[in-house]
Amino acid sequence: MASLKDQIRAAQDIKRQDDVEIPEWAPGARFRVCGLPSGDWEAYQNSLTKMTRRDSAAGIEVSVRSRKAEIVAKALRDQDTDELVFPDLREGIAILSQRSAGIVGGLFELVRHLSDDDKSFTQRVTEAEAGFGDGPS
What we know:
By secondary structure, this protein is an alpha+beta fold. It has a domain at 15-38 and 66-129: 2-Layer Sandwich (rbstp2171). It has helices spanning 4-10, 38-47, 68-75, 89-96, 101-114, 121-131, and strands spanning 16-20, 31-34, 49-55, 59-64, 76-78. It has a three-stranded antiparallel beta sheet with strand order 1-2-5. The chain has a two-stranded antiparallel sheet with strand order 3-4. The longest helix is centred in the last third of the chain and has 14 residues, at 101-114. It is globular, with a radius of gyration of 19 Å. The termini are close together. The model has no long low-confidence stretch (mean pLDDT 85).
C-alpha cells in the first residue's frame, strides 16, 4: 500500500476542460484549458498588488496589475498533443496581451474556475468531505 505522501504525489487533481473553441483565433481548433497548481495560482495572487514607496513624505503607492495573459498562457494547451500553445511564456504573454480582452478574460475565468479559486472555503470543504469516502481504504 502506498504511503499518504505517495498518494498525494500521484493524485490527478488538476481539473481541465477539453473542447474549448475560440473561433476568432483558430476556426475549427479545439483547445484544452487546465487549472493551475497551487504554487502557480498563489504566485499569481501574490503578484496582483505591488506596493512601492514613492517617497517618505507621501507614504505608500499601491498599484494593481492584471496578469490574465500570463495565467491563460500557462493554461492553454493543444487538445490533440497536450502541449502548451505558448511554451515560451514571454512570447505567449506578448501575443495574448494584444488579443481581445473579452476572450482572454473569459479564458482567465475558466482557469480560475478549474483552479477552484471561484469557490468559498466552505464550498471547498463540503466538496472534499463528499469525496472523502471515495479513496482507497
